[in-house]
Structure formats: C-alpha cells, structure tokens
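Batch job 17 of 40 flagged for manual review because the log was empty.
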Amino acid sequence: VIVSASGMATGGRVLHHLKHYLPDERSTILFTGFQAGGTRGADLVAGAERIRIHGDDIPVRAAVENLSMMSAHADADEIMGWLRGFRTAPRRVFLVHGEPHAGDALRRRIEHELGWDCCLPEQGEEIGL
C-alpha cells in the first residue's frame, strides 16, 4: 500500500507511482474524492486505457476506483450553511474553485437566497477591491 497525495494526478511523485503500478493488473489505484475534468485523475476514473506520463503512454491494466464520498470539498448546501452564518454580508462573493456550470449555479443560488453580489471571475481577470 502506497499512500500518496494525488491531487488530480497532474504532477508530483504520484506520477512515478502511477507510471510503475498502472500497467500491473494486480494493482489497484484508489482515488479519494473529486477529480476535475481534463486531469489524469478524471481520465483514469472515467476508464482511460492509456495515460500519458512524462512523455510515455502508460497502459492502464490496474483496477481504478474512486471513493467519491471522501471528497474534502463542501457541497452547495454546506457552503450556503456556512455563508448564512456570517454576521455581516460581504460586499461581494468571488467563486474561484470548481467546474464552471456548478459555479454558476452556486452564484445564482447565493444571489437569489442571500441577496448578495456574487461573481465567477475569469482566469486572469483583474477586479478592483
């Protein structure tokens, strides 16, 4: 058993472990939590047959599993509960993490239920505070 911070399997020492164990059908690669689209982690969870690591195409023969219930990310209800605990509403809420469609849904919910100004800044967008 090797425990390694996987992130989304986009970098770090986990890549060396994956490169070594993915081709071995006796191995299981176990992710704990959300894997963002477009990452190696998401591709593996989705059933990719090959993954590119360090310029090499690595065959996936290991079992790949995901314990999605182990995610450290809060869901929308948990975030709304946390926001409702504020004594004073912020001037503006910035949503900067997560998938775009989910972020937009949460933005609309914050605006509708709390009446707060909320936005999803674009990558590289500058906003004066």
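Reviewer: the log was empty due to a logging misconfiguration, but the result itself is present. The radius of gyration is 19 Å. Unflagging and moving on to job 18.
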